[in-house]
Amino acid sequence: MGTSDVTRTRTPTSTANVLLNVRGFVVLTCAVAVIATAIGAGNGRRISLPQHRVSVVVPGRWHMIYERVNGVVDPVTLFTASTFPLRVKSADQAGSSGVCSKALQRAWRADGAYVQVAEERDGASRKRMLRRVAKRPRHFKLTARGGGGLCTPANSGEISFQEGGRAFYVFYGIGLKASRATRAEAAALLDSLRIAPRG
Total structural domains in the chain? Predict the structure, then answer.
């Protein structure tokens, strides 16, 4: 049998089959990636803070600290969650630093994010706040533009809300290079809050 007998010419039909197989592989790969992303986003852990009568679901890759990250004593910091490690120095908690967090400024990453929840505990301040702030939203929207939050770069902001006779502040920052997944995780973290009513 000669060489010419075993040489096969690719026909239009075989070329079309190859293209279909490639396209099918690409579609399957994309579908697997979407499923993997969804599964990864669901890998959270619910953390209970009985001393504050609050619990929250924290994404698996996020870090949590419960101490103050600035000089503010009231409102009381319940927690700060961040995609980056956060180390607080004693000087960061000095009253002179005010609401600005030097710890967050040092640790800030353009592709990262943080969320802090604080509660107004002072009686008079709480009553004033309850008269002026809205009820907790069904879904939190983190749409701030520019610097803000705890004096962190863009995009950082603040949200006030009340629930069960209690008044809260949310301070947050989402870097300009943060992924959609990171943005979604920050909002989902807030949506997962369970808050017991004021006793």
Answer: 2
Burial readout 15-46 (b: 16 or more C-beta within 10 A, e: otherwise) = eeeeeeeeeeeeeeeeeeeeeeeeeeeeebee
3-state secondary structure at position 7:
coil
Residues 10 and 95 grouped into a single domain: no
What pLDDT score does 199 carry?
A: 85
Show Cβ contacts of residue 45 under 8 Å, excluding neighbours closer than 6 positions: 57, 58, 60
Output the six-digit token pair for 143.
């749409």
Nearest to 172 by CA among 35, 91, 79, 56: 79
d(CA 109, CA 114): 10
Claim to verify: residue 32 and residue 51 sit in the same structural domain: no
Query: Rounded to an integer, what distance in angstroms lies between the CA atom of residue 3 and that of residue 191?
Result: 69
92 and 177 belong to one structural domain: yes
Nearest one of 183, 70, 53 to 119, comparing CA atoms:
53
Residues 95 and 137 in one domain: yes
- Do 91 and 32 lie in a common domain? no
Q: Does residue 82 contact residue 101 with C-beta atoms inside 8 Å?
A: no
pLDDT in tens, 133-145: 999 999 999 999 9
* Structural domain span for residue 86: 45-195
pTM, to two decimals? 0.79
